[in-house]
Amino acid sequence: MPTQTQTQAAEYDDELAFYETTLRAAEGDAGLVLSHLEVAPGCNVGDNFSSIVTRTTAQGTRGSGEAFQRSMIVKRTPQTDQFRCLAAFAKETDAYCGLVPTLRSLCERARLPLPLAGCLHASRTLRPDHIILEDLTTLGYSMRPRQQGMDLQHALLIMEALGRFHGASLALRRLDARTFLELRADTSELIFFPAAEAVFACSLRASTTMAALSLRQSGRADLAQRLQARAARTGVFQEMCAVVAPPADGDVVPGVFTHGDCWANNLLFKYGPGGAPCQTRLVDLAGIRYSSPALDLLHFLYTSVQRDVRLRHHDDLLQRYLRTLRATVRELVRANAADAPLDPSLRRGAADDEDDVFSEEQLKEEMRKRAAFGLWIGLWMLPAIFFSPDIVPSSDSDSPVDYFSEETQAHMCKALPREFHRRLLHLVEDHAEDGTL
Q: Using the 8-state DSSP alphabet, how is residue 79 labeled?
C-alpha cells in the first residue's frame, strides 16, 4: 500500500502532466516540458463565491531549450454546493466550451477583440473540475476596489465591452441561426427560476430587510415602508423570475447572451502611461443567461457606477454602448458573411445599415420595463460589495451564524460602513423617483 508521501507525489506528477499537455496546446510547442508548479491564492477573500481560485505558475523548458514560465488562473469546483455553486461551475465550463469559442471565432475574422480572458482549458469530460484561464494580471490588468463606484472613463469602457459582447451575439443570430438556437437552448437560467426559490429567496428577503433597516437608520422610514410594501406585494424572487425572462423572438429589443454578473469584481482594467483606463476584460461567466441586454446594463449601472456618473451621463453611456453594438454587428456580418450566408428569416436589413439595431429610445424603454431588476439586484449585491469578515456577529455556540435572521441583519447593518448606507439610499431614491417603487 503506497504511503501518503508516495500518493502525494503521484498526484503531483499527474497534475504536472495535465498542465504540460494543456500548455503544449496553448503555446503551440509539442516539445514543452514542465518541471515545477507553484500555487498561490488567485483572489482575495470574498472576491469569488462559486469556485476555488488559484494562481498557478508553471516552470519548465521549451522545445527549443529556452526556459519557460507562465502564470494561469485556475478555477476548481467548490467543496460545497451552497447557492448552486456546482451548477454555476458547470455553466461556466459550458460557456467556455461552446459560446465563447463561437463568438471569438466571429470576432477574430473581423479582427475585433472579444473582451474576455483567454481560456486554456475547459472540458465536460477531461478534468471537468478545472477551468484554466490566462492570468490577466501578467498582461497589465487589475481589479478596482469593489467598494469604489466607477467614474465615467471606467464606465464607458464597460459599456463598450458589453456592446461588443452583445453585438457578437446579435451577429451570430444573423449569420448562423442553427448554432445560435442550439447555444440558446443550452443556456439555462442559474438563479431566477422556480426550482431555485428555496436556495435564493431567503437571501433576497434578507437583503430587503437589511435595506429597510438601513433606510430607517438614514432617517428615511418612508422609503423603507414603500420598499417593504413593494416586496410584499410582488414577492422579490417571483418578480425577478419574471423580469429576467427573455424577450419574445419578435420583440424590438431582441434577446442576447448576457454576462449575467456584471459588477466590479468581474471587471478588470488595463491602464495607459498617463494612468487612464484603456482596456477592459469581463471575467467569471458562470452567470451567463439568454435574455434582454438591458439586464447587463442595469446590473452594472446600479452595482458599480458612481451615482453622479449614472445620472449625469446616462445618455452618454447608452450611446457608447449602442455605437459599439452597431459597429460590432456591422463588422462581424461583413467579415463572416462569405463563410456563413445570412439566414433570410433573421436578416433585417443591409449589413451596413446601423438603423437595423434597436434605437436609443427603444433601449431606454426596455430598461424601464425591466427597472425592477436594477433595484433588487442592487440591494442584493450591496452587502456583498461592502462585506468583510469583521461585520459578522460572533456566535456563543458551535452552531454557524444564521446570516438571514433579523438579528444578524440588524447587527450587520450597524457594522457596515457609512458608504454602504449612502449608496443604498441613493439606489432606492433613484428607483422611487423613476416610479419603480
A: S
Arithmetic mean of pLDDT, 141-147: 94
How many domains are there within the chain?
Answer: 1
pLDDT tens figures, 351-367: 444 557 899 999 999 99
Residue 222, Cβ neighbours under 10 Å: how many?
11
CA nearest to 107, candidates 285, 336, 341, 278: 336
DSSP state of 259: -
Residue found by looking up cell 506528477 in the block: 13
CA atoms within 13 A on the CB side of 238: 6
Rg of the chain (C-alpha set): 23
- Return the amino acid letter for 295: L
In a domain, 332, yes or no: yes
Beta carbons within 10 angstroms of residue 253's beta carbon: 19
Question: Over the stretch 164-174, which tens digit does the pLDDT of each residue have?
Answer: 999 999 999 99
Sign of the torsion formed by the C-alpha atoms of 61, 62, 68 and 69: negative
Q: Which residue has the cell 507562465?
A: 70
Assess if residue 135 is contained within a domain. Answer: yes
Cell of 345: 428569416
Range of the domain at 114: 85-337+365-393+401-434
Is the pTM higher than 0.85? The answer reads yes
Query: Would you put residue 193 in left (φ > 0), alpha (ψ -120 to 50) or beta?
Result: beta
In-domain check, residue 17: no
Query: 49 lies in a domain?
Result: no
Report how far residue 258's alpha carbon sits from residue 13's, in angstroms, rounded to the nearest whole number: 39
- Bridge partner list, 282: 116, 267
Grid coordinates in use for 172? 451570430
Residues 6+ apart with CB under 8 A from 364: 318
